[in-house]
Amino acid sequence: MDIWLAAALALLLGLVPCGIVVARAALMDRVVAFEMAGVITTLALLLIAEALQQPSFADMAVALALLSFPGNLVLVRFAERGL
Q: The whole model's pTM is what?
């Protein structure tokens, strides 16, 4: 296993606590967990892009980094309405 893939796997294990917080916590704690999950996923995609030498994964990481914050704001707006 490549060191880059091992680092990506270690980062992806950090999504487990984020999922637990999203499932059980209050609204603002869920928002923080979603933001952290976006950061972890972005970094993991960058590590996978380096490991596989695929620049398209790096492009996906940049798109995720740009869209995760506005997406979370939309999620909070709908959650406040009770949808």
A: 0.86
